[in-house]
Amino acid sequence: MANEEDDPIIQEIDVFLARSLLEKLYLFQYPIRPASMTYDDVTHLSAKIKPKQQKVELEMAIDTLNPNYCRSKGEQIALNVDGTCTDETSTYSSKLMDKQTFCSSQAASNVSRYAAAVYKKGELHLTPLHGILQLRPSFTYLDKADAKHREREAANEGGDSSQDEAEDDVKQITVRFSRPETEQARQRRVQSYEFLQKRQAEEHWVHLHYYGLKDSRSEHERQYLFSQGHGLAENTELIKSPSEYLMMLMPPSVEEENDKPMAPSNVLSMAQLRTLPLADQIKILMKNVKVMPFANLMSLLGSGTDSTAVLRCVQQVALLVQGNWVVKSDVLYPKDTSSPHSGVPAEVLCRGRDFVMWKFTQDRWVVRKEVAAVTKLCPEDVKDFLEHMSVARINKGWEFMLPYDEDFVKKHPDIVQRQHMLWMGIQAKLEKVYNLLKEHLAPKKQEAQSAHPLLVSGEQRVNMAKAKAKQNYGQLEKEFQRQKAEMKSNDTSAKTDVPNIRIKEEPVGAEEPMDTSAFEGLNNGLVNGLHPAEGSPEPVNGHLPGGCIDRVAQELKAFVSSTFKKQFVLTLSELKRLFNLHLASLPPGHTLFSGISDKMLQDMVLDTGCKQILVPFPPQTAASPDELKVYALWEAGDTYDQHRQVLLEIFSRNYRVRRNVIQSQLSQECGEDLNKQEVDRVLKVSFCSVVGLIQS
Q1: What are the extents of the domains in the chain?
Q2: Which residues belong to any copy of the DNA-directed RNA polymerase III subunit RPC5 C-terminal domain (predicted)?
């Protein structure tokens, strides 16, 4: 208090913030000049700037009549630079060094704390600076003088040489083809000094016009240094508390942070990691670790992290393999990247790595030669895939690096079921891309059991569940038949009998479970270790308990109806693929996860007004039985119903028909003269699926 009384306030000054020259005002620092030479004596001949680099180049005239100017020295410099001849390319046309070039350099990297102030009539007006540039003499004219000197020496030495000596020698040229540039090599090249210099040289100069200190234009521009409005609404930055105002004037220095040693780009401390959002934390961890049990992931994220949120985020960047999470291929190989070994694009690498991951969902062992034979990738790429998730064993192959996580499978059956559906979709894509044979799809059950002896207890639980299911089989069968009869009686009125179409009658008694043989190799025939618990209401051989049959039937009917309204003709294989994708999009615990057999799916297709068309495919066709079963929506209520029925009759007699035959048949049956474009539209809108199957 005593110090404040000794230092009383003499005057209060209003401070205003001028915005007119915001991000346009630069401070130029000129070099020190002799006392007899003021800035008024200097004439700016030209000026130019590179805005992105904040680089300025000024050309100023030198007062050659000043007593401090050495005339003999100026003549000597002009002679060394231009020589005795004078032309348009001469630097000094007056044969005297009468001008000098100044180049700028940034005096400070952070100028946010600097401002230009103007005091007028008791008011202080501040304009933030956009840059502070120091102007220093440029000595490029000396380089020009050295070049002239070397040219004269070369002319004197080679002036009397003969024609033979003037001829250029024949030199051998070695042609080299550069390899595809990797992402790491590209980053190093972009950060190199040579690349930065090239980028700076590519920026064009912007020529400026210089106005003197007493010019009317300069007077006009100087008025912009004053705030145009004194209202508080335009100076809200100055309505701050004292502490906030001081923070704006003197922000925390970042020099200490810059002085700290930089860690490698692929290293991130746990303290820095936990400052990121949860999704980014999980993505970085999975990208670096590649394979991780869920318990380890939770321990790395710290205490208090919600496991439900972690499960939701980890499914976006990883897939479940043997109860453990493996990072997705598109996270490791982003789009528009390529292999550092072979230059193969990222899309092909993701497909090959997905095949390796899928193989590990069936078996704990994978053979490297088998993967290379299927994917057709180079050995280095295949080795990278295997090293991400497995360990090489002598004379055995590659074993999955982590043991089967049975605890996670028991605690999260919904997640396991959802991942199972995703893997079924991935398998369907791999079968089409790689034309997988049965030996690739068939798992090695004996090896899987011997390699994982801890699954004995799980097998016992499966046997117990099967025994209990057999006891309830009779009751479940009767209930299912009763519900099925009720559903058929309700939908009988909606069906239309078509005598011209041969309908294949499916046997009612035999149940045909949905094909999951490609996934029965891991953990005693269970995908990702999914074990049915005792007393579980899960379906047995496709039969559902009476309590949930109605809800399941309604959901299944809604899916089939909406699917056939979008695609009027589908094979059973395509319908199963769409159904698996639909299941993967459903939330955990949905009624459709209780289990749907092939027989139930086909019965529901027939109950919704669809017909099975017996297309006479050739005996030597390579299509699977599911691809030979073709179903079509007979009446959709649109303008193409009649055309679609005619097309179904045509393809029920022959699997390959010429376009002109289809056009004539449509015109005859429908009573319309259809042209080629209209026939194409009918085929595309109503019959594209079967046309695509026949073409394949």
Answers
A1: 12-62+98-150+190-230, 270-434, 547-686
A2: 444-693
